[in-house]
Amino acid sequence: MVPTSWTEFQQKIAQLEKEKRPDGTPRQIKVVYFLRHAEGTHNEAHDKYGSPRWEDEFARTDAFLDAPLTPFGVKDAQSKGQPSVQAELERHMPPIERVVVSPISRAIQTAQHFFAKHQVPSEPFTCLELCRETLDCHTCNKRRPLSELKRRFADVDFSRLTDEEDQMWSSTHRETTDEIQQRAREFLLELFREIPECHVVVAAHLSIIEAICAVALNIKVRPSNCEVVPIVLEAL
To answer: Got a GO cellular component term for this one (predicted)?
Structure first.
C-alpha cells in the first residue's frame, strides 16, 4: 500500500531499516530524489536551431563545453525548487541529509538554485563522477578540468575525483545503452558505498536517470528539466 503522508512514509522506511536480510545483516535503504538539471545553453541552442543544425554546427564546438544553465534555467530551478521543497518540509518530509552532484556545471548549478540554504545540510555537496550525462562527442557533456571546477564551485567536495582532465569523455565514441546502464549500476554501488545517509538528492542528467530507473526498477522515465524522480532503493 502506498503511504498517504510523509509520517506514514517515514514509518515504512524505519520498518524496512529494522528488518534483516537473509544473511542476518541489516537492510540498507536509501530514499533518493533524482533531480534533472534545469535548462542549459545546449538545450536552448537545440530548441532554437533544431536537431540537424545542432548536430552539424554546434554540438562538437567548444562554445558549448560543459554547458551551464541559461538565465531561464536559473530562474526555473529557483521557482520550481525552493517553494515546493519548503511545502513538503512543512508536511513533514524527512530532511534531506546529503546532496550529490555530477561534475557537469549545470547539475551543480541546479542543485545550488533548487534549494534554499536552510533546506539542505550545511556540508558541501558531494560530487560523484558516474552520475554524469551520456558520454558522447558532444562538448556540452565534457567536464571542465578539476582545478577549474574547484575554483568555480568552492562549496562542492570534489575529493572523489582524481583526474585533472576528463578521462571519461571521448570525441569519437558515444556511450551505448548497455554501457550507460552498466555505469548506472556502478553508480548505485558507489552511492551506497560512499554516502551513508538515507535521504539523498542526486542532481544529474536525463540519460543517467533513465538508465538508473531501467536497471533498478525496470521502468521507463523521461524527466523534464528540473523534474524530480523519487526512488526508494535497497542495496543488494
So the answer is: cytoplasm
